[in-house]
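Ticket reopened. Same input as before:
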Amino acid sequence: MAAKPGFGKTASLRILERMLVIRRFEESLVEMSGEKLFKSHYHLYIGQEATAAAVVESLRPDDKLTTTHRNHGHVLARGAEPGRAYAEILGRATGLNGGRGGTLHMSDPDRGFLATSSVVGGCIGLALGGAYAQQRRGKGGVSVAFFGDGSLEEGISFESMNIAALWKLPAVFICENNGAGATGSSKGGFPSSLISAPRLAGIAESLAISSKQVDGRDVDAVHAAVSAGVARCRSGKGPVFVECITERWEGSKPMWPELSTGITDVCMAWDAGQVPAKFRDWHTHQDPILLFVRKLLRKKLVTRDAIVKVDREVRARDATARQFAVSSPMPHGKTALQRVFA
Amino acid sequence: MRKITYSQAFVEGLDYCMRKMRNFSLVGNEVMGLGPHRVHLERIWKTYPDRVRFPPTSEAAFSALAAGAAMSGEHVFCHLGAASFSFLSMTSIANEAATAHYASGGKIKVPVVFHMLHGLRIGGGTQHSVSPQAMYWNVPGLQIVLPSCARDAKGLVATAGLSENPTVMFTHDLLIGLEGEVPEKDYEIPFGKADIKRRGKDVTLVATSWMVQVSLDAAKILADEGIDVEVVDPRTLVPFDKKTLIASVAKTGRLVVADETHLSCGVTAEISAIVAEEAFQYLKAPILRVARPDVPTPFSRPLEDFITPTKEKIADAVRRVMRKP
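Engineering reply: fixed in the latest deploy. New output:
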């Protein structure tokens, strides 16, 4: 698929819906955590939805994907059932992985995902394997790795990019650099990356990998870079690296996620009066959903009513999905001994 | 029957996998080490040039590549070199390959073989002599395979290559050039089926890999002394054939376990525990173990000899369980 300046109405609404599905899912998840429906630590994708929503737009059903501990957005963007995703995080038998994976290892193999690694950098090595398999198959499939800036601290990321470049493997390295503005563990926040390189894309460039740096909040920018990169991969020219830069969302700065900016109100996209003063920068300049909505309105591609309608439908489906998970049974303890081997 | 080396038999097993599965490929350098037997791999390189890749020295990444490719429908045989180097791959083997099937709720299969060279090989020193099979035995989700002779190598490579599960396979450096009778035809040896390498009635002697050969030598010495030793080779630690082991102990009433893994939490410890828990009633004497002491491996020959389980040390342990010092 060639890069194009922007999406038409149908595609725009599809992408908006995808972003809202992720946002509503995670807003609900914070509430469910507060209700003690699950007790594990978890990581949110809020603020990065434009990246996943745009990347999957360039992919085919037979493409492979890997993701990390911050996987909800990627798995949902690719079309996983939210109810089964909630159930997985709640450890229910009906979860995408029967409750074996939880939030850290949620994966949807039916949609091309390999196992989800929560070891930083692990997904990059597995995606390398996906790319090797795609090259062997020779059908033009690609393998996408979604990872954060912190992954580039790990040796396996360098090793994997080196092999991908040497063997011209169709690997699409999507580095979601959400480190900007992170407070870091020294100030009691979640760790941000510690990397000497001034530009992360420069690391890939040093291995002669075609690299781009884009605004990760901008659907069109991500899509343009990724669709061009994917096309390059499909034609056998080797791996690509796209660094998608986003500001660290306020709620992901503390060690434990907080819904600090509140439940998203799509009306804030056009009604500045609704925007609370406390997080004005987030609602005005950072939130990729509000940014996308404003762009669609500016281009007159969709109406406010259409946007409100999409959101209403997404929220209704979210409520149903949530209910499905909460009312799903827990697995029997003794089944822990099953499925060690195929 | 014709006699060929372990390395030749091993390569025949690989060739069988190549012929049997279009999606089988080899990632790794020098599968049979750097010695003269490395040449046997050329047959694979030349016959299947597009199915062999020589990776850079990046163990973590190319073992992850093998695991990820396996998750994507390939069968990959991944060679890591000396087992010490597999520690660089530990995250890809233990965190990724071993857990993917389980954590995905059974949706993902990981048909990958991680092959490595292990053992006291004379002069290997601290970083080319390790036998980490017990460490891998502590990673649920991995099959563990240890051929002890040419015939087993061919059939176990075939089974490992075809398996849908991640497998860690160990070749002892000293086995590579060992000759043995090997059928010409293709065959697979099922996992979880121990092989009684020598039948006997007095003592059960359990060993794997190169230690099977050493144990057979010990059994010869002991036969001259009138002690009839049964040598049991589990062949795979995971799955483990408890049935054959316990049946042998029930017959002999005595157990010696010989292995190159370290004494503490090593292979000898687990096998002894199985018999102590499940076959205690048959034992006429305490279980004895001959293992590598809990020290790193020294280079100098007398030092290395001191820590090596030898036929003499094994024979001595057998005499002690027979109460014939």
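The mean pLDDT of chain B is 97. DSSP finds twelve helices and 14 strands in chain B. Please confirm and we'll close it.
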